Amino acid sequence: MKKKLAWRMFFGVAVTLIALYTLFPFYWAIVTSLKNGSALFKAEPWPPDPAWRNYLLVFSEQPFGKNIWNSILVATSTVLLSLFLALTAAFALARIQFRGRSILLMLILAVSMFPQIAVLSGMFELVQWLHLYNTIPAMTLSYMIFTLPFTVWVLTTFMREMPKDLEEAAIMDGATPWTVLTRVFLPLLGPSLVTTGLLAFIAAWNEFLFALTFTLSDDARPVPVAIALLSGGSQFELPWGIIMAASVIVTVPLIVLVLGFQRKIVSGLTAGAVKG
After folding, report:
1. What is the pLDDT of residue 270?
2. Do 212 and 225 touch, CB atoms closer than 8 A?
3. Which domains does the chain have, with CATH numbers?
């Protein structure tokens, strides 16, 4: 009994420490976003005179609302296209027997191993050739380089866990492969799609290098680049309070998404962990 109580206490302390370690950077970002001038160099748990005006200055310094909307469009379109293509590819790779299937899957995974800088020049030439420079589709196309291999690999793993009996029964009833995918497997893949889509959304939301390279004006500029442009002269003149306020603003949507889909995320992460 004592050992069980001691283990629970240890587990509670460990969880508390992990939570503090994880949440403290975001808390400190909020505290910093409410400071200006010399107050930025004071280590205080909460500023005595919070500069809430920093959150208004974020939108007055530049069209930050437009930047947020651009990020929403880019991240959403990237996730939708990636999930659609990944679903069809995962069905073929997981349920259809053909020569070279394993090699093809490994090649898809290998694409994600290349650093972004290695494909930047080639992507720039492609974007210019397609006349997509400084547009939303330019970023959507480039972001799929790292979201599509990930989504294909993950969904293929989940697709392999689908019961064979369901597929055979649907085929016996005259269902086509597309019907099996959309009417039989898709409802069962809901948690997996939410988990994979959310991770792809976060990756697209936070991407910086492609966004900086393929945009020139606020018409298509997403929030990571917009925050980087909130700068003055030297590093001591940077409006750190405003920058941190902008960082807090763009982090809130991700927190809302994670909390909103928390149950489906847990279901997706644990899908296939217990069999039989």
Report:
1. 61
2. yes
3. 25-38+50-270 (1.10.3720.10)
